[in-house]
Amino acid sequence: MDVDSERETTLVRHASPRFFADPPHLVEDALAALRLGKHLLLRGPTGSGKTRFAEVLAERLRLEMESVNCSVDLDLEALLGHRTLGIADGQTVVEYVEGPVVRAMRLGRMLYVDELNVARPEVLPILHGALDHRRQLTNPLTAEVVTADPRFCVVAAINEGYAGTSPLNEALLNRFVVFDVHYVQGDALAQLIREGTALSSLPQIDRFVRFSADLVRASEVGELPAEAASIRALLDACDLATQMPPLRAVRYAVAGKLSDAREQDLVIELASSYFGGT
Asked: Boundaries of each AAA+ ATPase domain copy (predicted)?
């Protein structure tokens, strides 16, 4: 196997690290809520592992997952399905293709709705019936009443305070139980770096863990935006640091994602105290 192929294989192996919860009982509590028929809202900053958290819950419950990534362009067709032309018995017919919400309800899958608070508020009420005791919705595209399989559950995720987001209305929020997802730190972060990246140097991993703690503190006091402390970005930097000086890796993976030059300079200043120059 050549070097490039070996490197590619390593990255694939680390593509889905374990989810490290803070506090540690978070996963078991979320599983308990889902088994009781509750729907979950994961609330936390970008890059804190909300999507991976949902994947772990689906794996533990042995459920397939349907995903919806919300945007301002999200419409009912993206949720419920669409009509298309097909051929039956040599004739052109109009066929209905199920969307992720209908598939998840009918087949008893987990529905993961990412960035729920980015969607336009007028689109979301279609979910209300599926999320409450009725566990039903009327599909306006087919006039069919869809009743959820008993295994059907919803896990949604939101980033609060980011551009383009809006508060969830009370009727929708009350259909969830809320779990706050924080940036993992300390020993758990070190383990995540070991399992989720190609970085194996223990001294370097320790430096990245301490650097991450500085980023979190700076974001908590308002010196940096929350996204500067993204664990996803930190893991990218750890991978890059196996191929280049760590400070350059931080510049590309962490500082480069910030739009304010002063914030970028602060990230590099913090990183320099651990990784030196260049």
From this structure: 36-187
Cα gap 161→170, rounded to integer Å: 17
134-170 pLDDT, tens digit per residue, is: 999 999 988 899 999 999 999 999 987 666 677 888 9
The answer to whether 117 and 165 are in contact (CB under 8 A) is: yes
Q: Which two tokens stand for residue 257?
A: 């994602």
Phi, psi of 86 (to 5 degrees): -140, 180
At residue 184, the 3 state secondary structure works out as coil
- The answer to whether the CB of 267 falls within 8 A of the CB of 258 is yes
What residues form DSSP beta bridges with 91? 88
Contacts of 39 (CB under 8 A, 6+ apart): 131, 153, 154, 155, 156, 175, 176, 177
Spatial contact of 122 and 174, defined as CB atoms under 8 Å apart: no
| Distance (Å, whole) CA 196 – CA 13 | 8
Residue 274, classed as helix, strand or coil, is: helix
Surface-to-core class of residue 72, CB atoms within 10 Å of its CB (0-12 exposed, 13-18 middle, 19+ buried): exposed
Which pTM value belongs to this model? 0.81
| Rounded CA separation 190/208 (Å) | 8
Alpha helices (H) along the chain: 3-13, 26-35, 50-61, 76-80, 100-107, 128-131, 170-173, 186-196, 202-220, 231-240, 246-253, 261-275
66 touches 154 (CB < 8 A): no
User: Tens of pLDDT along 78-118?
Assistant: 999 988 877 777 777 778 899 999 999 999 999 999 999 99
CA-CA distance, 226 to 211, in Å (whole number)? 15
Q: Which residue has the tokens 């994602």?
A: 257
What's at 186, amino acid-wise?
G
Between CA 134 and CA 148 the distance in angstroms is 9
